[in-house]
Amino acid sequence: MKDLTPARSTLDPIEIASRDEISALQLKRLKWSLRHAYDNVPFYKNSFDSAGVHPDDLHDLSDLAKFPFTVKTDLRDNYPFGMFAVPQDQVKRIHASSGTTGQPTVVGYTANDLENWGNVVARSLRAAGMCPGDMLHNAYGYGLFTGGMGIHLGADALGLSTVPISGGMTPRQVRLIEDFKPKGITVTPSYALSILDEFNAQGLDPRDCSLQVGIFGAEPWTNAMRLEIEQAFDMHAVDIYGLSEVMGPGVSMECVESKDGLHIWEDHFYPEIINPETGQVVADGEQGELVFTSLTKEAFPIIRYRTRDLTRLLCGTARSMRRMEKVTGRSDDMIILRGVNVFPTQIEELLMQIDALSPHFQIELTRPDRMDQMRILTEIADAGVQLSARSDAASHLSALVKQSVGISVKIDVGDIGAVPRSEGKAVRILDKRPKT
Ligand code: DLL
User: Fold this and answer.
1) For a substitution probing ligand 1, which of 145, 216, 241 has the most ligand atoms within 8 Å of its CB?
2) Distance, CA 240 to ligand 1 centroid (Å)?
3) What's this model's pTM, rounded to 2 decimal places?
4) AMP-dependent synthetase/ligase domain: from which residue to which, for each copy (predicted)?
């Protein structure tokens, strides 16, 4: 793999500023953001007033802990535009979450917000090793989802030539990668695996293709998956994180030269980690739930938003801004099976250890005879895997899960294609247990 480290001279000065400079900027912007939310969004006025705090009470960054949290239901309760802080004619773009679990959450951006978003995504793409003039194959979905258009905004700001292919039509994805020869690809890691399968199905060696870096996010993925993809494509694989409520892709980004977690663009997004049970802020280095406060957003300021993503904050390395450890799961995705907590990423990590199995998987939860059961559906890695090797692989995986997670699971190893594919975020868990 080529060294794609960006030249230091190309970075935004704030990326390598001193911690004091970053904190001073954060404090100034945080004061503005709290005031802006309080003055312009009735929800924030009510929630601050009920908690007995006022924007003027913030003297220090740590004072933020006095302010109340915002949660997803607050956004849903204010559907569609109740959380917007500017008149509608200043809202230049609207995105929304898919809303598979209820009311969609709607977010908006002013012209300045779009410019800031473009800049943080440009910074992220540069951190991945993309340079002005490089070609990017953008396979995140375009539409209300922030992935496609958010990346596109940053690609324009950085000066890339972008192929806005969006998700789906996998044979065409391969065709265009072969014909156009992009340097980078932006896509969910699970859909990257489908593209990989398609290369193999067409008899093409993905290691021979032009791609030098894959920028993967929008769903959890493991370092084991990173190795698998890096080897399969002979390219770097880096992690990009974000969420629509806070902006979209580009809230934090892993640097290609270090691959040691994601630097949070702290000049726009202020992170805290809290104990999800007590709501108390925990020290850097401790695991907990990630909470974000926007520092510059005009249309949709967000104060202490509980992301449900579990991670920890670490000091800066390749950049001065703090890192967050790779998100291995959301509290919503944590399966509690007979008293044991399990995240799908733990299964992914174990699955990767078995050569005869493909990395595609889905977890099904059922409750026969009032006992929770987990079934893992996966597939053979290639058509040449014999029946006996299949059952050996299933026993091997079941033993690994028993040993490292501590639960008994049923494993089904199907033919290639047995696990339903998604063209965006993978659906990892099918919960068929009766709702109690
Ligand atoms: O997924 C934004 C995005 C698009 C990020 C493209 C990266 C690339 P939402 O649809 O609002 O926004 O979903 C946000 O997805 O709270 C996490 O649970 C999860 N997520 C996003 N990026 C990562 C990542 C976009 N790199 C939710 N690792 C977040 C793990 C991620 N989970």
Assistant:
1) 241
2) 8
3) 0.97
4) 94-293
